[in-house]
Specification:
- Keywords: DNA-binding, Phosphoprotein, Transcription, Transcription regulation.
- This is Response regulator transcription factor.
- InterPro entries: CheY-like_superfamily, NreC/VraR/RcsB-like_REC, Sig_transdc_resp-reg_C-effctor, Sig_transdc_resp-reg_receiver, Tscrpt_reg_LuxR_C, WalR-like.
- The protein is α/β, with parallel strands linked by helices.
- A 5-stranded parallel beta sheet has the order 2-1-3-4-5, with helices on both faces.
- Helix 3 packs parallel to helix 4.
- The radius of gyration is 18 Å and the shape is globular.
Length: about 230
C-alpha cells in the first residue's frame, strides 16, 4: 500500500515550448489536471527554452517546431546534446503535423524521443508524456508504420550510415531490428520469432544499447540508413 502511495506522489515535470500562448495555456490546463504531472515552465521560442531549462529542470519538454529566434529542431539538438547543468537530460516530444515530414526525420536525429500531433486528444498528450518519461518512444508501433510510410520518400536512396554499426548485433538482434523497422510491436515480434515477449524486450534493449539509440524510433532510422531495411515503394 505504501508503494502505491509513493508512486502516486511521483510527479513528472513538464516544460511547454510554443510561440502561441493560447496553445501553451491549453496544454497546461490538461497537464496540470493530472496528479502525477506538473508544468514547471513555459517558453515562447527555442532560445528562451534552452536558457530557462539550464536553471529550471524539467523531465519532459513539449517542443513546437516553427518558432521565432530559434526553432524547435535547433533547441532540441542543444537540449539533448549532453547532460544539463543540473544533471540529466530532458526528453523532448516534438509537436508536429504529418505535413511537416521533413522536420520529423531531422527531429529524430536531433534527439527527440517522440512526436505528438498538435490536435491530438488530451488522453494521447498525457500518455505521450508518461511514455517518454519511462524511457520509451512516444510513437506506438502502429503509428511507426504510418510514420515510415510518410518518411519513405525522404529517406536517402544512398546509405548514409556505415553498416559497420550493425556488426555488434547478433543474428537474432538483427532479426528483431528488421521487425521493429517494419513497425511490428513486441507482441507481434514474439509471435513471429516464437519467443516470449520478455525475451523480445531484452533483445530490443540490447539493440538500442549497441546502436547508441535513444529509443525505438532512432533504431529504426539506423536500420534504414545502413541499408538493413529498404523503404517499401
Amino acid at each position: 500500500m505504501s508503494s502505491e502511495h509513493d508512486h502516486a506522489e511521483e510527479v513528472i515535470t513538464v516544460a511547454l515550448v510554443d510561440d502561441q500562448q493560447l496553445v501553451r495555456a491549453g496544454f497546461a490546463l490538461v497537464i496540470d489536471s493530472q496528479p502525477d504531472l506538473r508544468v514547471v515552465l513555459e517558453a515562447g521560442d527555442g532560445t528562451q527554452a534552452v536558457r530557462l531549462l539550464a536553471s529550471h529542470p524539467a523531465d519532459v519538454v513539449l517542443m513546437d517546431v516553427r518558432m521565432p529566434t530559434m526553432d524547435g529542431l535547433a533547441a532540441t539538438a542543444q537540449l539533448t546534446a549532453g547532460p544539463a547543468p543540473h544533471g540529466g537530460c530532458p526528453k523532448v516530444i516534438i509537436l508536429t503535423t504529418f505535413d511537416l515530414d521533413e522536420y520529423v526525420l531531422q527531429a529524430i536525429k536531433a534527439g527527440a524521443s517522440g512526436f505528438l500531433l498538435k490536435d491530438a486528444p488530451p488522453e494521447e498528450l498525457l500518455a505521450a508524456i508518461r511514455t517518454v518519461h519511462r524511457g520509451d518512444a512516444v510513437i506506438a508501433p502502429s503509428s511507426t508504420r504510418r510514420l515510415l510510410e510518410h518518411l519513405a520518400p525522404l529517406l536517402p536512396d544512398e546509405h548514409t550510415a556505415s553498416s559497420d554499426v550493425l556488426d555488434s548485433l547478433t543474428e537474432r538482434e538483427r532479426e528483431v531490428l528488421v521487425l521493429m523497422a517494419r513497425g511490428r510491436s513486441n507482441t507481434e515480434i514474439a509471435a513471429d520469432l516464437f519467443v516470449a515477449e520478455a525475451t523480445v524486450k531484452t533483445h530490443v534493449g540490447r539493440v538500442l544499447a549497441k546502436l547508441g539509440a535513444r529509443d525505438r524510433v532512432q533504431a529504426v532510422v539506423v536500420a534504414y540508413e545502413t541499408g538493413l531495411v529498404s523503404p517499401r515503394p
